[in-house]
Amino acid sequence: MAHTHPPRFLKIVDDARVRVRETTVDEVKSRLDRGDKDKFVLVDVREDREFAADHIPGAVHLGKGVIERDIEAQFPALDTPLVLYCGGGFRSALAADNLQKMGYTNVISMDGGIREWREKSYPLEKGS
After folding, report:
1. Which of 119, 101, 115, 109 has the alpha carbon at shortest distance from 14?
2. pTM of the predicted model, to two decimals?
3. Residue 29 class from Cβ within 10 Å (0-12 exposed, 13-18 middle, 19+ buried)?
4. Hey, where are the domains in the chain?
5. Which of 17-21, 33-37, 50-54 has the lowest mean pLDDT?
6. Which fold has domain 7-119?
7. DSSP 76
8. Residue 98 pLDDT grade (very low, low, confident, very high; cuts 50, 70, 90)
9. Residue 62 CB neighbours (<10 A)
10. Rounded to an integer, what is the distance from CA 16 to the centroid of its chain?
11. Taken in order 90, 91, 96, 97, is the CA torsion positive or negative?
12. List of residues 6+ apart from 31 with CB closer than 8 A
């Protein structure tokens, strides 16, 4: 189900996307299938309840509301390869932009988010 987002929200997402690298759902799935999971950290930036309902296997949870506060404790190296995802790729773009402002140099947002992941029937796991 596609969401209709308010225009001011879309404006800040579009602004962030100018500065953020993005990847596709298929590319992330391909990287996981190749066994590259140890070469990047997959970060789910959705809300707690969304993550608990389902998430991509192996993802760590750092919600959009706390990622900027908590990222340094969990991943202090500014060159840590991070692939962020959310529901559709909007919150992850905003989070990626903020992490880059904090000095993180290897951050990518997964366009399409878990919504597209589900549509393609890629594997999911439940629980926190």
Report:
1. 109
2. 0.93
3. middle
4. 7-119
5. 33-37
6. Oxidized Rhodanese; domain 1 (3.40.250)
7. -
8. very high
9. 24
10. 14
11. positive
12. 37, 39, 40
pLDDT of residue 2: 56
**Residues 99-105, mean pLDDT to the nearest whole number:** 98
- Catalytic-labelled residue, pool 86, 93, 99, 107: 86
Which amino acid makes up residue 114? I
Element (H, E) at 110: strand 107-110
Say which residue the tokens 């990287």 belong to: 31
Q: What's phi and psi for 85, nearest 5 deg?
A: -145, 160
- Tokens standing for residue 106: 């290897």
Q: In the annotation, is 86 catalytic?
A: yes
CB contact at 8 A, 20 and 85: no
